[in-house]
Amino acid sequence: MTLTGRSVTVRVPATSANLGPGFDTLGLALSVYDEVTVTVREKSGASVDVRGVGAGVVPTDETNLVVTSMAYTFEAMGQPVPGVDIIANNVIPHGRGLGSSGAAVVAGIVAAKGLLDGIVDIDSDALLRIATELEGHPDNVAPALFGGLTIAWLEVTGPQHKKLMVHRGVAPLVFVPQHTLSTKLARSLQPLSVPHEDAVFNVSRSALLIAALTQSPELLFAGTADKLHQSYRASAMPETGRLVSLLRAHGFAAVVSGAGPSILVLADGPGRRLEAAELVASESETDWEAMFLAVDVKGASLALGAKRRAQDAKGGSLN
Ligand code: HSE
Questions:
Q1: What is the CATH number of domain 7-164+297-313?
Q2: Mind listing the pLDDT tens digit for each residue in 157-214?
Q3: Ligand 1 centre from 61 Cα, in Å?
Q4: What is the pTM of this model?
Q5: Taking the domains of the chain in order of start, what are their residue ranges?
């Protein structure tokens, strides 16, 4: 069966991983989106028209991360890899700890799912397994795929996730600096082992954080404390560390977003977000963009064909 002419559009949210104590486990989908349209062509290979973030910087050929992730998925499903033309409208900042690489991986995998519609079914478990194989850890790709707040863990059979809905009183605010930080560098600063008491500290805080995010926003400050990663990485992002400490000294539930250098504040109301933004604007030494966001509840969405027909009764959601 030829796929030539098939076209899908995938929209993927930004994500913030870790959320303080939930290292490599917790993630939150946020209302900033990359969107890619993938059309199968006759000729093999790939061309990518990158618009917005990453234009002129990210590869536009078969080495592009969306393309390699799509091809990996076709191969994993035992299907021949088609040639494709892609238009990528990118909005998620790159190299800032907001899940842009996870979003590209998810975009490629979900595009493959859409292109293989009616030929092979790729279920949620397979989507998460493939995305985790490509990204290395599941905490960004789980919320990018499924939306909301996700807990991700590894079983011998593969990665698993539980999606939770966030309390409506939780108001996310992200501060994005001009500079970038590589996740690889940040991960290289992690020690191989940690004191037992620090591990216990994080176990209790991450359990508390789930209660804070789903039921009791007044516990967000205590629930976002961490001893497993942020202090070890602080030398690679000194201004992030200083601003997180400053925000926390003023009672804000501030954490490094993912591997940094962006900062996530989980405010317990819209008014508190404005106060946090004013504090950072007056105390930062460099330029930080304040993004007032919502929690994305849907995750990656898939539309088939030029008219963006919804894929299923859930409006294209993968849940
Ligand atoms: N959990 C990951 C880390 C998220 O902090 O290294 C970044 O990809």
A1: 3.30.230.10
A2: 999 999 999 999 999 999 999 999 999 999 999 999 999 999 999 999 999 999 999 9
A3: 27
A4: 0.93
A5: 7-164+297-313, 171-292
pLDDT given for residue 318 in this prediction: 72
Rounded percentage of the chain residues whose pLDDT exceeds 90: 93
Across 29-53, average pLDDT: 97
107: closest CA among 303, 319, 300, 296?
300
Q: Which two tokens stand for residue 9?
A: 């559009």
Work out which ligand 1 atom sits closest to the CA atom of 25.
1
Q: Which two structure tokens, joined as six digits, stand for 161?
A: 């996730």
- Residues composing the chain: 319
What CATH homologous superfamily does 171-292 map to? GHMP kinase, C-terminal domain (3.30.70.890)
Question: In degrees, to the nearest 5, what angle opens at C-alpha 162 toward C-alphas 160 and 166?
Answer: 150
Query: What is d(CA 238, CA 198) in angstroms, rounded to the nearest whole number?
Result: 22
Strand 309-310, strand 301-304: pairing: antiparallel
Residue 119: Cβ-neighbour burial (10 angstroms; 0-12, 13-18, 19+): exposed
CB 34 within 8 A of CB 12: yes
Pair 78, 118: CB distance under 8 Å: no
Residue with tokens 């079983």: 155
For the chain, helix (H) and strand (E) counts, in that order, are 10, 12
Q: Which atom of ligand 1 is nearest to the CA of 97?
A: 7
Token digits for 6? 């098939």
Residues 108, 69: contact at Cβ < 8 Å? yes
Please list, in sequence order, all residues whose beta carbon lies within 8 angstroms of the beta carbon of residue 5, skipping any fewer than 6 positions away.
Answer: 39, 40
pLDDT digits (tens, 9 = 90+) for 117-139: 999 999 999 999 999 999 999 99
Residue 5 Cα to ligand 1 middle (Å)? 37
Residue 38, classed as helix, strand or coil, is strand
Ligand 1, atom nearest to 186 Cα: 6
The answer to whether residues 93 and 135 touch, using CB atoms and an 8 Å cutoff, is no
